[in-house]
8-oxoguanine deaminase
Amino acid sequence: MAAAQRIVIENCSIATVDADDTEYATGYVVVAGNRIESLGAGSAPEGLENVVRRVDGTGHLATPGLVNTHHHFYQWITRGLATDHNLFNWLVALYPTWARIDEQMVYAAAQGSLAMMARGGVTTAMDHHYVFPKGSGDLSGAIIRAAREAGVRFTLARGSMDRSEKDGGLPPDFAVETLEGALAATEATVDEHHDASFGAMTQIAVAPCSPFSVSTELLTQGAELARRKGVRLHTHGSETVEEEQFCKELFGMGPTDYFESTGWLGEDVWMAHCVHMNDSDIAAFARTRTGVAHCPSSNARLAAGIARVPDMLAAGVPVGLGVDGTASNESGELHTELRNALLVNRLGAHREAALNARQALRLGTFGGAQVLGRAAEIGSLEPGKLADLVLWRLDTLAHASIADPVTALVFGAAAPVTLSLVNGLPVVENSRLLHVDEDAVARSTRAEAQRLARITARA
Ligand SMILES: [Zn+2]
């Protein structure tokens, strides 16, 4: 086999986000094939062979690529609707539109969501997809195809809903699958697409949508399916006070106790939101190593509340960041969530001590890798790990007068991405996507959004 080709990045600041938060004011990173080979202060070692590219990182900060842990790609074509609603009212307003999506729409929406993620420094994306209308085509296949084309590492959380209005749930009857249908389709998606190997580009998780749209049987049997297949489990949890009331009325307990009773706490589980958690809920997550996808912008958009991230971190709960679907976070950018996680949590009980810039960067990188079960592969810049990294430009008007690069990245405006590598391969160069025609995707997503609106209006 030919020796691995090397990319050498020099003269940049580096925040490794390793266990000691090691940083270099000026340093280098050597990438060999799809792995980080070496990094450190000063110049790269001399005499390296097979160097195909040298990058001058002057004025830049190198960090691990950002990891998004919660999203709903299809919502890219239903942005800007029901803008003054809380979660339940917003869902009821949008279900009739969402129930009419098809493969062509979902593919375009996935392209749009992925493009926005990648150009903002995301190297590992995820999609929690839970709307599968009858006859809508191969939605999972279309989403995975879009991720492969964009060049990012990807987890598809195969979602499902089977508790509709007639069973006391929130979605309309026509928007849900049957219990048997959802389980069979989820298992087929795992069998067809899940790659368990080190460095996998595509992984699948089992992901019933939420306590108020899913039967107890689907949660229980979904957990059994995931553990039989050795894949991770994902769902929404403890998002709003209304959800908490729903669980108490229907199940006689709060969401966390309900999840525990259905097998949904564990180190192979991560849950979106977790806003309404008391001390014993947080202790249960810490004891079981259940992960959290913190989505501060979406929680603010839907007036859900402030998740207790500082308390979760102090207790030892793994926490990553998520944009959530773009119908509740129209920007669809993860790098702004670093800033919003810090700002929103400072509005909570811990005030200015809630989070600092380095903790926010850790949430968006290593924390995300932890909750996706990939901390040994990605999330920090260390020799032997996969070469998923971002070179942020910090020497322009937006950031040049901020001395500390991590402060500039987290507190400042969204920084331009000069280079991002996924698995050692460039995905973004000078703020432009290399594998996706951004303007073409802008046109197709607008056309699909209009087509969906027309179909919904006719129904
Ligand atoms: Zn969500």
The chain has a mean pLDDT of 97. The first strand starts at residue 6 and ends at 15. The chain is about 35% helix and 20% strand.
